Amino acid sequence: MVPAHVKSYPDGLPIGEHWVPCEHSDPIVFPYDSSVIGHAPVGSVQHAIQALDAAQEVRQPTARLSTGTRRSILMAVHGKLTAVREELENLLVLETGKPLVDCRVEVARTLTTWAAAAEEVAHSHGETVPLDLQPSGEGMIGYWTRKPAGIIVGIAGFNYPLLLASHKLAPALAAGCPIILKPAPNTPLTTLWAVHLIRQALTEHEVSAATVQLVTGGIKVGETLVADPRAAVVSFTGSAAVGHRIAKNAAPRKAVLELGSNTGFIVAGDARIEDAVDAVIRGGFYANGQACISVQRVIVEAKVADEFQRQLLARLDEVIVGDPRSPETRVAPLINAASTERIMTWIHQAVDCGAQILHGGTLQGASILPTVISQVPTEANLWCQEIFGPVICLHRVPDLDTAFELVNDSRYGLQAAIYSTNLKTAFRAIEELDVGGVVVNEIPGFRSDIMPYGGVKDSGIGREGPRFAMEEFTVTRMAIIRP
Asked: Using CA atoms, how far apart are residues 469 and 358, in angstroms rounded to an integer?
């Protein structure tokens, strides 16, 4: 059993200037042993409306905040999060069940995101337009600037709750937009604490706490936030199915969607096999495989497939399964039993269709052992859907043409990777793979928090990263002047 989470923020939900009470709360459990670590307030539709009303009241004052004030607030938040860094890491382990090593990475990346957003504030500007290109514009002056779009609704996933929330919160503040955040129901605690610290930073700068609000709750709460015409932009991270519904409910207003994937990883015949194997070990099982750009579909040219498979299987014992609180653990139980049952069902279905389990495929306690499966039919869920667990599918192909076709033959397109020592092959992958990001000689899960991040097809629309999210959260305003 683990000790209960010691709350470092008020009761209720941060709505308006204060924390408002909630009639109901839900237990938050540690996925490793199902012990209760704390209770989270459960919001209602009325809470969502109250938050929208408060955001509307502060919309104009927030938009008028100076560049210097916004930068100072963002750096203050960075400082407050840094001061409780270790406590945030430990709480993330308890509510997500991710190994400690991954939670440390999440907090480090969160701090980078806030610092980067603070720097991007000074870079948000427009440019002049030569109106005299047409005779009617002779003697006129034209320029455009970026203005805050308005209220942002941010909805974050469970797997990286603090980081995903920060990729919505920090750019919204940087852009001058009030934001209402809805965290995932089973991982709200770290985000509640972070929002408390953000609101402290706001009030210390004499800015309304209502600039950043948080509402928990079920589908009705989310639909209320998304469908309200006062919400200028909805930024969502989660499954494709939910993302599609959000886009429909938000229309015609903007939806920024970072959805799922079934990441392709190509091993070319000229690749350094040891490096490619190392990448699969690092990129296939981090965060218990619950990352949308973790390695899923490994496509290997036939001439090196046997050697690649041999080296990969020889190293799988390095992926230690155990208690996520241990620094040595790399795989622990998934977020809930339903996720585990779904993946095990998909494994059994693939085997029934001819797939061969090379390693794992069973449970150790509540954890799925690191699993490698070959000969998975391309129409099987294990291949064509997003696994979101510690399972890798191996597929050998005769040539790179077939490899590229297989990666692109997917409803998803977030990021993909290729290992090759041939520069021509690398640039071909960059040109031909139908994804939002192509990674050469590194794991497809590589993400710098300052780069444009997002996908194509069912992997979403729009881009995250402070600079690019700020562009999503602002609109251009054209100025046309005849002196």
From this structure: 42
- Return the half-sphere exposure (C-beta side, CA atoms, 13 A cut-off) of residue 334: 22
Q: Please compute, for residue 204, the number of CA atoms within 13 A of its CA located in the half-sphere on the CB side.
A: 14
Reply yes or no on whether the pLDDT at 120 is more than 90: yes
SS3 assignment, position 85 = helix
Residues annotated as catalytic (active site), given as ranges: 258, 292
Rounded CA-CA distance 403/301 in Å is 8
Distance separating alpha carbons of residues 305 and 301, to the nearest angstrom: 6
Question: Could you read off the pLDDT of 371-390 as tens digits, one per residue?
Answer: 999 999 999 999 999 999 99
13 in Cβ contact with 20 (< 8 Å):
yes
Residue 212 has pLDDT above 70, yes or no: yes
- The mean per-residue pLDDT over the stretch 256-277 comes to 98
User: Exposure string (b/e) for 257-267, b if CB count within 10 Å is 16 or more?
Assistant: bbbbbbbbbbb
Other Cβ atoms less than 10 A from the Cβ of 354: the count is: 11
pLDDT band at 7 (very low <50, low <70, confident <90, very high): confident
Q: How many H helices and E strands in the chain?
A: 15, 22
| CB-CB neighbours of 137 under 10 Å | 15
Predicted TM-score (pTM) of this structure: 0.96
Residues in the chain: 483
CA dist 202 and 197 (Å) reads 9
Q: Could you say which DSSP state residue 212 is in?
A: E
* C-alpha torsion angle, residues 200, 205, 208, 210 (rounded to 10): -40
What are the φ/ψ torsions at residue 245 (nearest 5 degrees)?
-65, -40
As to burial, measured by CB atoms within 10 angstroms (0-12 exposed, 13-18 middle, 19+ buried), residue 296 is buried
* Span 446-464, pLDDT tens digits: 999 999 999 999 999 999 9
CA distance 97 to 100: 9
* Distance between first and last Cα of the chain: 74
Parallel, antiparallel, or unpaired: how do β-strands 179-182 and 151-155 relate?
parallel
Render pLDDT for 77-118 as a digit per residue (tens, 0 to 9): 999 999 999 999 999 999 999 999 999 999 999 999 999 999
Kindly list the distances between the CA atom of residue 41 and the CA atoms of 20, 31, 244, in Å, as whole numbers in the listed order. Answer: 10, 19, 27
Paired residues of 396 in beta bridges? 300
Give the sign of the dihedral formed by CA 433, CA 438, CA 440, CA 446: negative
Q: What is the 3-state secondary structure (H, E, C) of 15-47?
A: ECCEEECCCEEEEEECCCCCCEEEEEEECCHHH
Q: Are 472 and 452 in contact (CB under 8 A)?
A: no
Decide: helix, strand or coil at residue 128: strand
Q: Helix, strand, or coil here: 324?
A: coil
SS3 for 167? helix
Measured distance CA(157)–CA(259) in Å, rounded:
10
Neighbours of 145 (CB within 10 A): 14
